[in-house]
Amino acid sequence: MIDKTNKIQIVSSLKKCAFQTGRVDVTAGRVTGHHGPVLDLQWNPFNDNIIASSSDDCTIKIWYIPDEGLKKSNMNQPIMDLSGHKRRVGYIMWHPTAENILFSVGFDYMIMVWNIGEGTLVNSITCHPDTIHSLSFNRDGSLIATTCKDKKLRVIDARSGDVLQEGICHQGSKAAKVVFLGDSGRLFTTGFSRFSDRQWSVWSQHNLQAPLRMENIDSSSGVLFPFYDHDTKMVYVAGKGDGNIRYYEIVNEAPYCHYLNQFLTGFPQRGLGFMPKRGLDVSRCEVFRFYKLHAVKPLCEIISMIVPRKSEQFQEDIFPDTAAPTPSLTAKEWLSGKNRNPILISLRTGAGARTNKPVLYNPDRQYLVTADRNNERKFIFISEGNKVDYRELLHMNGNNNVVKDSQALDKVNHNMVASQTKKFPWSEEVPPCSASETGVVSRHVMPVATFVTIQDNDSSSDHEDSSLELSSSEELLEACKKLSSHVKDLKTKLQAKDEKIKELEEKLHLLQKEKEKN
Fold first, then answer.
1. How confident is the model at residue 399 (pLDDT cuts 50, 70, 90)?
2. Total structural domains in the chain?
3. How far apart are CA 495 and CA 489, in angstroms?
4. Domain boundary, last residue among 275, 296, 323
5. Quick one: DSSP state of residue 306?
6. What are phi and psi of 480, to 5 degrees?
7. Does an H or E element contain 345, and which?
């Protein structure tokens, strides 16, 4: 967070999804390296210890925050300084899939692309004739969308800087904001009409001459900021100076956007930040979390968007696989022209995944290297759910031959049946379903249940055990016959009940007719 003295203050986490609340100590550590007001701050999505900050002093600084935080010591020296803008740097944004790629937006009408790993300027995008108001990436980071003071919305190639599409966005003179709607090929913008009404629009990235849909919201004066959640297909719209947060659902067919509801408070907001998906509390069905900076008092309030569910199980419909804290491309691969969607991770098993990667830094060479190169395999592994092993238990005999451990199988089966009977007493009253008379039945013990499978009886190796297995098959057939007769009796009783109900309904109908005649 950025305090009133324009210094960056790090608030440490106590537990998973839990942050210390209350008044921040006056002597708490701060990042004080900038010589002007801090205008933007972004955490590295692939490294929890790296942040980038931009300032009024025309510089961008990269900071390494230790795991234990700053405590009571201030940090004055960044690990890297990036200088290239001639005027203040208003916005910065990390690339969503490529490692160590950072975009910066300055008030000199330029967008600069930086390779943080080498501390070099990769490209400068100079297609804007006036102040740039916002920037957004598409899902794989191959395109960027911008809004400008000249009232135009542009879709630009992120590497070359070529303008692919452009058109008039909102007619008002105040700032407009844009966000890509994931990989849908559409954009969502907020701005002002010619009569200063606040409005939102949905656009196709292939044609910016006219919006797919546009609607007015109200006549307030605060700039609207959109926040898009790709997993739930929700857009949250919050205005500077407002006390509410509206949220909309994005769909692929017309009208493309549906208003759902709004979160109302009586305290205006100065700004909003949000928590990445892997930091949410999935046990509470928390789908989005805002950090609201109050406008009238020095307070940062946590606002959680929670979907009410009675079940305590993991809700797969509102928590699909989300972007993992692992880059899908290196900076070199992305600069060479490759595009790739984000690596996904399951919130069922990987919600608490952290990326505390050690960083190697040589001040003489101005070179930043992430030492942990095995994160991709690690997060692919932990994103997989638990899988049951259905193989039979084996052991080695005295002749070093692998044989089936029948005693271990019987022990596992006995313990499992006993535990199931204790937990579900009625289960022992229902006999298992049998196989057909033409099959030889064999039983395999599974970790969670007992299954009956049918095998061909042509094999000569199974002929010796056929008598024992056939006897068990006869018992199963007899039990199944008893169960079938019981089911037939129930069906007969049910049919008799239906006939009786029908007879009573006819009598009631006749009585009603007689009553009407009288």
1. low
2. 2
3. 10
4. 323
5. E
6. -70, -35
7. strand 344-345
